[in-house]
Write a structure and sequence with these properties.
- The chain is α+β, with helices and mostly antiparallel strands.
- The protein has five helices and six strands, in the order αβαββααβββα.
- The chain has a two-stranded antiparallel ribbon with strand order 1-6. Strands 2-3 form a two-stranded antiparallel ribbon. Strands 4-5 form a two-stranded antiparallel sheet.
- Strand 4 and strand 5 form a beta hairpin.
- Helix 3 crosses helix 4.
């Protein structure tokens, strides 16, 4: 494909056909200009109304202040894929001597929060919010104390699962005279260790006041 610049093409004498072609090109160019202008106007109007772009969904290349609603919906982290095969384990029991210690270990130092922007504004991370809710539900089962935060966690996890809507199919297999779903096969997952490293690095570098007092409720 040849490329031309405006300065490399000489003006030629116009025949009637070329005149029509030039007219068509002119109208096409004008159309694109108007469309571009209309897009600019639309962006201006919607941005003034707070509807364009949607809050927290701008490009990762945009610099955010992390003040008010000026922050991204997702932290710009390029995550690798890893394989995970779900399996039953003796660890992470509901109750027992080691249960509290093992479940407490699933959160990174600092509780799994990020402090972003010039003012080090705190943000939670969905991964650690979900894990914290599992810990809270475990304690509720162990102690029988189903408080309001437990109810919030139940609904938070329910809605998080619906939001993910994972379509992975799981085969049904016979077991003990009945049937169950076999979940023990490899899955393609996001590398969650990268999120842990992000949170731990942010916590180690942060000087925000009250970092250690942050908890998910």
């Amino acid at each position: 494909m040849k490329a031309y610049s405006l300065s490399s093409v000489r003006p030629q004498a116009r025949s009637p056909k070329r005149s029509y072609l030039a007219y068509a090109l002119l109208m096409t160019s004008a159309t694109f200009v108007l469309l571009g202008f209309g897009t600019v106007v639309a962006r201006y109007v919607f941005s003034v109304q707070g509807e364009y772009p949607p809050p927290g969904q701008r490009s990762h290349s945009v610099q955010y202040t992390f003040v008010g609603e000026d922050y991204p919906a997702y932290y710009p982290l390029d995550m690798d894929e890893v394989s995970l095969t779900p399996e039953f384990t003796i660890h992470y029991q509901v109750s027992g001597e080691t249960a509290e210690r093992e479940w407490a270990s699933i959160l990174p130092e600092g509780g799994g929060f990020l402090h972003l922007g010039a003012e080090e504004r705190p943000f939670g991370i969905t991964l650690f919010h979900q894990l914290s809710c599992l810990q809270r539900l475990r304690r509720a089962i162990d102690t029988g104390d189903a408080s309001a935060p437990v109810h919030r966690c139940m609904n938070y996890l329910r809605q998080s699962i619906l939001c993910e809507a994972n379509p992975t199919i799981e085969p049904v297999i016979p077991i003990l005279g009945g049937w169950t779903v076999d979940a023990k096969f490899p899955r393609v997952c996001k590398d969650w260790t990268q999120v842990y490293m992000l949170a731990e690095k942010n916590y180690a570098e942060g000087v925000g006041v009250g970092q250690r007092d942050m908890k998910y409720y």
